[in-house]
Specification:
Elements lengths: L1 H7 L2 H101 L1
């Protein structure tokens, strides 16, 4: 059996097999070239879209930064008002304590 299969592979058949194999690999190479081209195009398109997205995000970021800057200014004003209120409460409270102490001292001195 083995000798018959070896006999059937003549040089001519081996040459045909080699040509067929080369032709098929050439077709595979063409397909890979086409896929490579499509991938290059896809990569270029993706890069362009990412650049667009980056530009949009930068615009959004700059808008947020300007909004946050205004919020920071308003918080600074509110902080100033709270500090003034705190100072006023301390002054009024201190004044009331001093007034009460003077009043109690007057009552103590008058009664005694």
């Amino acid at each position: 059996m083995e000798s018959m299969s070896r006999i059937s592979w003549t040089d001519e058949r081996l040459d045909d097999f080699a040509r067929n194999t080369d032709r098929r690999f050439d077709e595979v190479d063409r397909r890979f070239d086409r896929v490579d081209g499509e991938l290059r195009d896809l990569r270029s398109e993706m890069n362009a879209r990412f650049e667009e997205a980056d530009a949009k995000l930068e615009r959004i970021e700059s808008k947020f930064e300007s909004k946050f800057d205004r919020v920071d200014v308003k918080f600074d004003r509110i902080d100033g008002r709270i500090d003034a209120l705190h100072r006023g409460v301390l002054q009024i409270g201190g004044g009331m304590i001093v007034t009460l102490l003077i009043g109690f001292a007057g009552l103590y001195l008058r009664g005694g």
